[in-house]
Design brief:
The complex is a heterodimer. Chain A is α/β, with parallel strands linked by helices. Chain A has one domain (3-261, 395-481): Amidase signature (AS) enzymes. Chain A is 38% helix and 12% strand. Chain A contains 16 helices and eleven strands. In chain A, strand 10 (438-445) and strand 11 (451-458) form a beta hairpin. Chain B is flat. Classes of the chains: A alpha/beta, B mainly alpha. Chains A and B meet through helix 10, helix 11, helix 12, helix 13 and helix 15 of A and helix 1 and helix 2 of B.
Amino acid sequence: MEPTELSMLELGRKLAAGELSSAEVVRACLARVDRLDGRVKAFLRVDREGALAQADAADRRCKDGKRAGLLDGVPVGLKDLFLTEGLPTTAGSRILESFIAPFDATVVKLLRAAGTPILGKLNMDEFAMGSSTENSAYFPTRNPWNLETSPGGSSGGSAAAVSARMVFGALGTDTGGSIRQPAALTGTVGLKPTYGRVSRFGVVAFASSLDQVGPMTRDVPDCAALLQAIAVHDPQDSTSAPVKAPDYLAELETGVRGMKLGLPREYFDLPGMDPEVRSAVEAATRELEKLGAELVPVSLPHTKYALATYYLVAPAEASSNLARYDGVRYGLRVPEKNLLAMYGRTRDKGFGLEVKRRIMLGTYALSAGYYDAYYLKAQKVRTLIKQDFVEAFRTVDAVLSPTSPTPAFRIGEKVSDPLAMYLNDVFTLPCNLAGLPGLSLPCGFTRAGLPIGLQILGRPWDEARVLRIGRTFEREHDFHRRTPPLGAS
Amino acid sequence: MSLTLEEVRHVAGLARLSLSSEEEALMRTQLSAILDAMAELSRVDTSKVEPTSHAAGEAAPWRSDQVRPSLPEEKALGNAPSKVGTSFAVPKIIE
């Protein structure tokens, strides 16, 4: 078996036992990148030297009996919006094309402390705005399961790299589904933790009341282990909660007997839902019932308003966050004699169309005369969406649904119609609006061989249970062991 | 609803975006369609609902007011498109 077929935890055990070295595994990953990434296009930048140096350091720690933890020496990738000192961080945008961060994001520091060599920076929709990675200013990433289709987005490069076994795991961010939807479309596992669980210091901001950092992996135990490495309170992020993370691996294998799992009818009766997705997810729920859980119908009546709520709240926050790209302190500057002209031309040249669209939408929703009708209204409906979940979690321990209404779609199919693209996120958005943890894991394949994702939403801070439910399903199947048909070259 | 071209230009000005005339026309059509889709929120009765600005639900935490080292000037200026000494340089705003 190729070392790149191992999971993070399996590889960690082999490294600890001296059966493999981190350096040879990094070289195997780099060889895979060389062989496959010309077609998949997951990486914006590969850091060969850095990764090999970090691998050598991991191998020395291992030899000295000082391994940093379960993941020491296991290569990972980063969505290109985590600041990495000395390496470019573009956020998929031209405006940051030449930006080299002067410090590491807190989660990057945590990964370095955990000993994981960082293989490179992964493609994404510009400023994480998109659901297909087609909004990257550089190039679209392709889905390893079918190169004509999209891996989803915005963390599409991270999902594709994990799926194609070019890295063992990756970090993404999820503002409205940007970890879970690409995980579903690429047959990988992705978790959006509870808002506040993971530090966002040094992470390029999109919508600050929604953004959360999370792990993207091949299986659920890896997801738990990678979450463990980054779920640390950070005083440098005032939204990072001073809550101690439990041991996410401790109860992972203890099953679902006695748990109550909610099936929200609003998530299954959506017009436009792919019938194969629906039947695979329904089969998964019945299987969890056989494994000892009780299925309970629940209602989340404000689900239908989540899309409109999200697409007012997120662009409003984005328009404010992206005001910092003004050509003054870093990033692109279009020189002009007059300051206002410099701002306007810099931002026009530096931002892509979707980013401009969201800045415009957000600025409009926040502008005098429209604030109450749009932004404030959306914040109030957000309260109702959150209350729906509070109500549901009085009777159930978690909520099950499809992650995405369709499997991977063709590149180019939706990119010219923003509203059609926004519909991809219909099942993932409410979780961000309510601040809940949400997991996506593979639960089947379509007849055409495309992966299907099951979404599990939990109570705030209840990642351990969400992961446990996912693991209970996962270990009955080999979906997570299947490798995309990428052939020899 | 339909945005006018003047409204599009006004919002672009607020957002400090110099849009081309093609972009202005596209934004006008697309933003109008998106805002139409968002209008469904007006059907929800929110007369007795408080707004949610954050998912966390926790009050902003306090920390002690301690002086800590910040980024050294050289690093902070490392990405400056233009600088003079230890300052960022911008076009003159007062003649």
